Fold these 2 entries.
Entry 1:
Amino acid sequence: MIPAYLIEVRESDGDLVQILENASEIEMEEAINAPTRLTFSLPSTDTKLYYVTKDKELWVRDTDADDVIVKTKLIRQEDVR
């Protein structure tokens, strides 16, 4: 079974701002002595894209286990239209 993930946008104190329900192609890449690299796609028309900023945290939740498995911040945002 492939795990189901949700990406949550949160304040630095952990307060929930938005849930990115339309995020797709969610991938996490872990490396030794480096932060986890999170990549995902979000439609440019999604109004919640506004909340994905460098001052917010992105939490990845495994919805099957209801556990947060990654907490990270935005480093780079690409428009690949």
Entry 2:
Amino acid sequence: MQEEKRKIKSEIADLSRSLSTMGGMLKGTVSKVVLGAKKRGVGNRESYLLTYKEKGNKTRTLYVSKQRLVEVEGMIANYQEAKQTLERIIELNVRLFKMK
């Protein structure tokens, strides 16, 4: 029993450390929007929007430049990974709580 507790505590510590090294995070989704051609231009223009919920149910939208698209998508992936890691930490804490 003590050995199992030690392993769980060690895994919780490892997961907590990994949370601190994940880097920037953003919550939301990125959508591509196709706009019409400029007055003197030819063809369509593309734009990207980050949409997220703020303070309950208020939806916010931010423009994302094409140059920062990869960065934003990486930050969204970091957020998803952090959520999964936090869920695992909670699961382990419940197991640990039941052992006491």
